[in-house]
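Tokens in:
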């Protein structure tokens, strides 16, 4: 059925027609809400509220813009409302051993969650316009999403709509009930803030999925499995950054990384298996911890790897609860070669 026919049927109260009308946009709306909120779970809630608001407000849609543009307007304002009303305090993280090294800093964005590449692959080509300044791989990287959270909510919306999605200044102004001039000023300030807050970029599109990346991930997996601190450190950049959301602590530098591995990672996880996956356009490892009681390998967390050339510049470990959208098993099949 054509879009105009679906729209007419939906306006007549046909819920199935409305579902068909919005179905092509669900994934990109979810990614949009994820960029705005920094949390996969919060984005799920935001999309549901967006579609409910769109259904209730369908009569107000005059058709001057496309259905897609209208849905983005609803989604953006839904996210802004959620940010205003929601508490951003995440669940408490497990305490670290007393021997853990002192962190070198703290992360303000403790609610950050990973986004599976498996779902990002569902995005259509229309998810970014030629006018967008930010490459799609960078636009979903952990560093970029975290830096977005440090902007004011409206500035965040301006950057995502203009620089990621390529919407015009007039479209953004209408979405935010502002003016093109105000949008331009907000965008200029937001770009400057992003340059200040965003750490070194992750690998560019040309390095994603290359033999070099695969080799680094393989060597890291081997070193982690063997608890070989020196082998891990050899793969790290001098200013490597380690984080463990929702824990606010950050450890930076090879020396701190070595102590962290010995006194935290390998102490808390004496035996582990690793399954390669991808998150936020970056390589990742699903971590399975050995249960000494029943001998099973249970999901224990997700390690997202940030690369720059032939070095690892960041390791971000997420808790096991964030693994559910990745389609990974909670328990690995028995493999006695790992016993």
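Residues out:
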């Amino acid at each position: 059925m054509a879009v105009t026919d679906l729209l007419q049927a939906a306006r007549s109260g046909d819920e199935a027609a409305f579902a068909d009308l919005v179905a092509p946009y669900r994934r990109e709306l979810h990614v949009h809400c994820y960029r705005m909120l920094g949390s996969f779970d919060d984005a799920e809630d935001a999309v549901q509220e967006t579609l409910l608001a769109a259904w209730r407000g369908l009569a107000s849609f005059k058709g001057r813009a496309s259905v897609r543009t209208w849905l983005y307007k609803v989604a953006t304002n839904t996210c802004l409302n959620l940010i205003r009303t929601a508490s951003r305090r995440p669940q408490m993280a497990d305490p670290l051993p007393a021997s853990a090294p002192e962190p070198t800093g703290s992360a303000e964005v403790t609610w950050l969650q990973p986004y599976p590449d498996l779902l990002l692959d569902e995005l259509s080509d229309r998810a970014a316009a030629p006018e967008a300044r930010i490459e799609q791989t960078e636009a979903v990287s952990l560093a970029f999403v975290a830096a977005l959270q440090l902007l004011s909510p409206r500035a965040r919306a301006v950057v995502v709509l203009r620089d990621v999605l390529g919407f015009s200044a007039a479209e953004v102004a209408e979405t935010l009930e502002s003016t093109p001039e105000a949008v331009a000023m907000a965008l200029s300030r937001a770009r400057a803030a992003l340059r200040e807050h965003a750490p070194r970029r992750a690998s560019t599109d040309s390095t994603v999925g290359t033999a070099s990346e695969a080799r680094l991930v393989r060597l890291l997996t081997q070193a982690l499995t063997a608890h070989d601190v020196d082998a891990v450190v050899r793969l790290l950049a001098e200013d490597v950054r380690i984080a463990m959301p929702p824990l606010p602590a950050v450890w930076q530098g090879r020396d701190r990384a070595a102590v962290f591995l010995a006194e935290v990672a390998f102490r808390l996880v004496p035996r582990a298996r690793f399954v390669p996956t991808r998150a936020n356009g970056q390589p990742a490892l699903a971590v399975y911890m050995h249960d000494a009681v029943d001998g099973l390998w249970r999901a224990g967390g997700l390690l997202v790897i940030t690369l720059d050339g032939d070095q690892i510049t960041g390791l971000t470990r997420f808790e096991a609860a964030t693994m559910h959208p990745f389609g990974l098993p909670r328990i690995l099949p028995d493999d006695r070669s790992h016993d």
